[in-house]
Request: fold
Amino acid sequence: MNHRSPIRSVSRPALALLLATTAAPALARQADPDVAATAAEAQIERIRTLDDAGPMLNAVIVYEPEAANYANEAEEAGTPLAGRTVLVKDNVETEEWPTTAGSLALKDNATGRDAPLVANLRAAGGVVMGKTNLSEWANIRSNNSTSGWSGVGGLTKNPYAIDRNSCGSSSGSGAAIAAGFAWGAIGTETNGSITCPASINGLVGFKPSVGIVSRTHVVPISSTQDTAGPITKMVHDAALLLTAIAAPDKADPVTLDAKRVADYTAGLDTASLKGVRIGVLRGAIGSRPDVAALFETALADLTRAGAVLVDVAYEAPSDLWEASLPVLLFELRVEMDKYLSTRPGNGGPRSLADVVAFNKEHAAEEMRWFNQDLFEQALTTTDAEAYAKNVATLRRLTRAEGIDKLLADNQVTFLVAPTEGPAWTTDLVNGDHFSGGIGAGYLAAIAGYPHITVPMGAVEGLPVGFSIMGGQWQDHAVLKAGAVYEKARTAKLPAPTFAVWKPAGE
Reply:
């Protein structure tokens, strides 16, 4: 069930704040008068028609009924984003609504504050359209979870086939943009939660290098892997949105050393891959001939664009998987306790242990479909020495002996692979079932390096994405490579059906 708010935002940035944006002045503007307000009105109507009614996608938890007025104000003020609407995943704090992470334990978590990335978005003239549904607690509660389900928002449906999954914890952000509910969305990723929903919903998703975007006032999982990033329909829009939200934040020290550019849209229109060597991760294609065929077409498009393709062999060592989950569980406990214990207001959980207790007390609502085994494991993952060793192992295997080595040894600038297979049928009883062996986004996620997915076609009407990954702080270069591929792409892209999946031709 979606939970709507009839109230308008409790406060608005002053005009001076809107104009004193930290985003680059070169950001593109919408030139036609009232276009932002008109777009916002149409988007609200689509939410009412397709999310509240009709197929009931359950992508949006709450929306702003005054979005058109705010869009008009921002456009008239000459702001960089000019009133473009953005939906925000409901683990990112916004001042006007509770931030629930999808959990009934946080249904009253009204902090009255914007996360810095949201403040930056507003300052650049973006209109916060509302909050999107997500996999509860960003999909870290259980090994047997169903992506896109939360106690607060229910089950998010895929616009391309409403009986199919929307993937990743940013499922609502992906489904909402595919359905036309806003210009763009903010997702968050620890490992695949921006890129997978973008891929499966036929969108562009960009996971920045960790540190490009602040994580302050975002319900956390991992201090080493968490990041927010844009989900949009086009690469240019992703770059535009990233420019608006990217900034240093003293409260998040990893952002202070990040290497940003002033305008991530710069050079996208004229970017070229002529003579650029690109590493092809053949081992990440998986065993599906239909996905492999789409990928080969994408590679042919890159070749016609002038890129030089180099096959790159890589197989993840077992040490990587052995270290990965313990790191996430240790950081989950530490970071969640820190976030919950410092929340403004009274009531609600103040620690991960409190959340575990809440879920047990409300098992009928919260644990009907899957349990909280990962939360319970996190409570006992307390060995700091083992944690430090595992972090060092992950950094070595994904950076120095991972992406950095693959790029250097093969003299390539980027690595490419399919992002994920087509959307699977949602099954609340048995949980997720991914197509095996497809994708290598975990490398970029664990390393904290940039990763973009761009639509590369569809399998039986179900979108599949094309991944491009690069070295640390090479975010602008990865975006430009994505823009070149987007322009060179020859595959036809499907349209959402808002209906149950049917085989092609039926």
User: Anything to note?
Assistant: The mean pLDDT is 93. Residues 14-23+33-506 form a domain with the Amidase signature (AS) enzymes fold (CATH 3.90.1300.10). The chain is about 35% helix and 15% strand. The longest strand covers residues 451-459.
